Amino acid sequence: MSVENSRREQINALLNSRTRLVAEAAAQPRSLEAAEGGCGVLGFAANVPIAGRHIFTASQQMHNRGNGKGGGIAAAKLDPAQMRVSPDVLRTHYLIQVAYLDPGARAQVERECLMERFDIAAAYPVETLDDYRAAAGLEMRPPDVVRYFCRVKPEVLAHFAEANGLRHLPARQVEDEYVYQNTFRLNQRYYASLGDKRAFVLCHGRDLLVFKIVGYAEHAAAYYRLEDLRAHVWISHQRYPTKGRIWHPGGAHPFIGVNEALVHNGDFANYHRVTEYLRQRNIAPLFLTDTEVSVLLFDLWDRVYGYPLEVLLEALAPTTERDLDMLSPEKQSLYRAIQQTHLHGSPDGPWFFIVARSQPDTQAWQLLGITDTSMLRPQVFALYESGGAVTVPVQIGLIASERQAINACLRSLSSEDARFQPLADKYWVARGGSYTDGGSFAFTVSKDGQGYHLTCRDKFGKSVETPQPSVAAKTRDDIDPARTLRDSVQGASTRGVGQWFAEARESLTVAELPQIGAWMDWLIGLSGKDDASRAFAINALTLMRDRRYDTGPKKRSALLAMVDKTLYRILRAVPGLEVGSASTHRRVDWHTRQTMRSPVADEQVLVVDACGFSAEGEESAARLLCQAHSLGWRHFIAFDWRGGRFAGCGLGPNTDDIRLDIYGDAGDYLGSGLDGAHVLVHGDAQDQVGQILKRGRLVIHGDVGQTFLYGAKGGEIFVLGSAAGRPLINAVGRPRAVINGTCLDYLAESFMAGDALNGGGFAILNGVTFDQTGQLIELDTPYPGGNLFSLASGGAIYLRDPRGKVDDDQLNGGQFAPLSDADWQLIEPYLRQNGELFGICVADLLRVDGEVQPPHKVYRKVEVKSLDVLH
Amino acid sequence: MPRYHIHTRPAPAPFEYPARFQMDETDSYVKYGHRVFPGTSQRGDRYWTAEIISQTWYQAETGRIPISGAGYGGPFSGEGFEGMWLDMSEIVRPTRDGIHGREYISTTVNLGGAPELLEFDAAAHLLTPMPKSMSLPLPVMFGPLPMPLPGRGALRALTLAAERLGTLAILTSDALDVAPSRNLALRLAADDFDSIGDLAQAPVYVEIEDEPWALERWRAARERWANAMVVLRHALGPDSPTEVERLLRQGVRFFHLYADDEGRDRAGRPLPDSLREVHTHLVQRRWRDSLSFLVSGGIAAAEHVPKIIACGADVVVLDYVPIIAWGCALWADKLTCPVEKRELDAEWGAQRLVNLMAAWRDQLLEAMGAMGMREVRRLRGEVGRVIFEETESKAFRRLFPTTAPLSAWRRLPEEDSGEGDMRWTHALVASSHQQARDGRPDFEQEFRVGGSGGGFDRLAFAFELTDAWQQTWQRSRGDRWLADPAGFDMSLPLNRRGDGRPRLVIPLPWYGAGMSFGSIGLPVMLSRARAAQALDTFFSTGEGGYPDDLIPYADHIITQVATGLFGVREETIQRARLVEIKYAQGAKPGLGGHLLGNKNTESVAQEREAVQGTSLFSPFPFHSVYSVEDHKKHVDWLKQINPRALISVKVSTPTDVDMVAVGSYFAGAHIVHLDGAYGGTGAAPEIAKKNIAMPIEYAIPKVHRFLEGEGIRDQLTIMASGGIRTAYDVAKAIALGADGCIIGTAELVAIGCTRLGSCEKGLGCPFGITTTDPERSKLVNVKGAWRGIVNLYTSWLWQLAGILRALAPYGVNSIRELRGRTDVLVYLE
């Protein structure tokens, strides 16, 4: 018998050992699959332990992604002291938590399923609030949870191995399997098979903890007192199940394999087929949700089959089409083998998984974010590493449904711990099933000589790094940048803020963070002097936020955090509507919203402190803006926006006189329906921005999310960064968009915007970004995806693609055409405006390898192709 | 790997073809349930129906998928494939519109199996040797001709088409002279096994007939052609599960499972049931994934492919379909069959098959797209996404405490003419015309039900079976069963949430369905608007916005927000009292709106801000809504834009429609609008109309009861549409659990529609109804047309009042008390 054969036989023996178990389960009558809804998911991994409250504050901000019918958390790499066991026990013992829906079941469960089978190192009930109603909003009493640290009794394990022919397997693998089966039996007996659900296992891995609740995730935290629980890896989940009255938390996420916990946003199209695949491997779901099935697949391929992570990811989310072609021949043949073996069993439909994985034997703990191949669920990744050379840096990697949740988490951390800051160094979106990043990233916490550190790698193992500040240049002792900056402001209000920025840019580069801080403190003082000074300070800080330049020895994220802090302080000092003042700027916030009134006298700018408003509905900041508009306000500065949706929606037609500046994390649907107004987002924007946008000007000083400008009819739109999937889908009329970065996929699908040269619409895709010194650089390709201009019947795409990297395969209906003079005359003014807004000169865009080239050698046009299907 | 694309072109007849086969214009109009056109009635039989034959001809000729307007007109259901509906996805699982090639959906299947798992060495290199596998870009192969045809042309056409399509044509040993240069596939009978001699090329596929010595031959073939897939043919029957298991234990991994030419197994059971049994058995025995199933017997239409794959097939094998594609009308005119009379030209024959398969592939994409699947390999065995009539009807019948024989219920006279279809019979169309004239039914012809044989047409009110009813009915004094609606509360509150938004109430329990400017022209829109105003109710714009001429009626206009977002602007949302989000349309689940180029006239293009003369596709689904929490966000968005509007959510009827409704409740919707599969439409593929999502009759009680169980039924208004033709349909829908109905086609019938079904062809409706052609639309006179709608609706109100009066003994006195009272209905067996 060859080694390979024996391995396969061992695996078969392992799966066969479940035969009786599964046969019993299959005999039970089952209702059909439980329909799964959407969700809000969040997870992070850090090289330092982090208290639970930080994830809960953040996930609270995603309430609108759940409906309070299911929340849960998982935590890995725990604190032995808090677990009341020795580090050794934490590492070697299974951490079993049983939820007793019926407290009376405990004695029986322990007798039948635990005591005789396990050596128990510690067992105790998890502390809870005395009264569940003390956790505001919790509608029913959560189950009692008892925590056990245990190992399978050696004689029990030996018997199990003997009886099932598993002697040749590593002992730990046999023990894992025993624990898995024991849990299955317990759940089957006390949860799935009976009408009354009495008890189920929350988790049973090593150094991995799970809580689930009927309620929001933070209810679990409050009730089980997890706020101070420390762990390196956390995930949380807000569930939006569509299946009705739920009174037990078994169906909430996360679901467990053995040493992994998984949360999921999405819904399978082929649930039944996947269960058939599992059934043939003696695996039966008990909770009947597709999340459970997902983790069962993961556990099979990971623990039982022992697949390398890349193989597992490919089996889950196969690489197809052009993305497969772009891989190396070796990779293609490997992936084809994986697909041939696993396609029948892989999940279809939209899904996004976050997995917490504990690998105590290798002392590694992991947080994985895995997207489906069509990127149908929202997802954002982020990475932060503290600066400072002396200590070991603090590192944290985060994954969430929304960027605002990541920032809420960082804000919470930074408010307590100076090593963190409210903004990450890097944010990005994965391209599902792609050749570029494979659509998934793993954050791994592991230990080396110096302590714990965090690495982030994509599916192909490529490491993701944060931009590091340059070493401080030696400045002359007699030059104090803070003072230079102070001086630069003199008379600047007459020269204009753009001029000031150009002059002060170098000082901003060389200054160290404390010096900038000192200058900003001074700026705060200055801004209090009069309206003009305040306006200058606001504009200067805004420019520091919007522009990309060399930040020298400071990390850009740290500088931005400081800018925000200063700006918010200045804005919060603006006199409120309720006080007497002659200021041009007046302020309103959540507490004073009832004082909203029409502007009087010289009042021009309404400053809206968006913090504290609800994300949508009558109590939202977006509604307040509409109310203020109807009262006669026309110029708005809205700041400290925390994920609230619909900013700039509902203002109505013909709002050409409105200008709205937004600072903070503007939520989904920003400017959707805009008809004339001028909206500036001083940072990144989220999903569904500019839907049905009709007229007006929308400027985004950062990236923008999914389905940007869906069904837009017009407007002038400028994006400094990149758009995610499906921008400009179904846009008609004459929208004109400049995107300086790239788009992931499906750009301008079904574009119907007339003839670009004759009053119609177009999009310019520049495919550039900035390096750390603020220099414009080309991206690897202006457009990595497929389906460019797919099935379009009008409009045009102008691609900055001097090296001809985009090919016919990426089109699906359109065709390339050379850039004509008329084309250039059309787009050049937009590129010039783009330059004014973002500081990207047209000449720099036309420069290729140091030489300025004629436009037709730099830009290409994608135009309409006459298609049968369109006639 | 380039996108798989089938190039279609007309198959030019190289010589004069036998006169019997003529593809004329009417052939593209043959639709389910329509009376077949003169000259075509002799086509086909009970199984290979006239529709199947005509549509096959159309597809073989053009390579296009059959599309028509005016909804489905065929029978309610049947057995086998006719008793299955494919599930679709909306909101919680996005479907994707695969038909128009914008989304990647793979139809590729692998033959040859795969290892159960892969093994890697320590450096993560693959150790497992991969079995040789052949991938077919389509899950379809051609079988040997089921009957001999003259000459070699037909056989050559088969092999040529298979070559071009990248699939296999299975040849018998007497056809080796037409073998392709590569990918030879053979069927060997017992007696030619030894006589076959040396082959010029090694076959890649060999199938052996299952008979006593089959296994021996199977082994011999494996030895002889080591690289070939050796397949065992097995006739499906009740013993197949155990028989297949016995054979696989002997090492057989490939099975060609077949039924007879009407899709029946040895015991006469339909192929889908028989195959499912084998598939399920082998899943339970943990074998299924190591086997490949080729399936044949009665695979006649494009929709049979996804259906049989969902029942467990890997690949289908076609038998009679190619012959029909060449012009045979099967048994009916067997004696004069053109295909049997003379040899056909191989080029011509091959191109027709290529065209047909191109159309089938597009329809497979459509079905998978609607299901939200992007890999046909993941569909194998996915019965979770199939709705079985057998299961659903059982649950449906349980709703009714009483049943009666169909014969106990009296139909009014029905004239038999060529007009109409099974759902909208000639009598129903004519009586609707009459009511639109007179404002009351004349009891001269059947005006309550159609002839679909199921659903509403199999339900009666209990009082309809009483002696009193029977007697007055017989003496044609039916008007005794009418009553003045003024005496009854017919009003319908649209906002039950108590959320501070207006408590809109309409005086009658229905309003007008969405019809876009584009599918209909301005006069029809104005007629609907005036009727809605006169009755103080609503009508929906459908996709595409509306011209300014309609602004005076804004209080009665529902602004529809559909997936193309055409004509949707803040001002049109802010103007409306009721905003309708169209997630899906029952008549074509999984597809967005589709306005063909010739109906996209100057004014339509202007309204939609698109390019005139191009076909306008709305995407499917909303690309901003891929889950239920996105759905909430979407509803919140509209609420933000218009803080006074009510929100209606229009969805079709997948199997989890109850979950969709609950999700909509949590999302803050006021109305859930269930759109069943029978609704009219400007243009929809036949495959979508007939085969996807469940009938409205099944969906209503499913949602009603589920919401009741959740304790939220009274916070939502459920509106039903998609096949509500008459006042009796309205009353039955309410008794099944809806609050009210939404009416589309009946309004058009009131204006003069005869359900011709050519809404999308050329310039649209010859009667000027579904057209945007400026000249043709003048045929509709607004003044008369809006009165027609009001008259029809008045007649309905008199009937409803009569029904309520008759239901008084059952404790039903208002339309609201009728809701959910399935006990007043009788199921007609």
Characterize the structure shown.
The complex is a heterodimer of chains A (871) and B (829). Chain A has 871 residues and is an alpha/beta fold. Chain A is 31% helix and 23% strand. Chain B has 829 residues and is an alpha/beta fold. Chain B is 31% helix and 13% strand. Chain B contains 24 helices and 29 strands. In chain B, the strands form eight sheets. In chain B, strands 5-12-11-10-9-8-7-6 form an eight-stranded parallel beta sheet. Chain B has an eight-stranded parallel beta sheet with strand order 18-28-27-25-24-21-20-19. In chain B, strands 14-29-15 form a three-stranded mixed beta sheet, with no helix packed on it. Chains A and B meet through helix 1, strand 1, helix 10, helix 13 and helix 14 of A and helix 15, strand 23, helix 17, helix 18 and helix 20 of B.
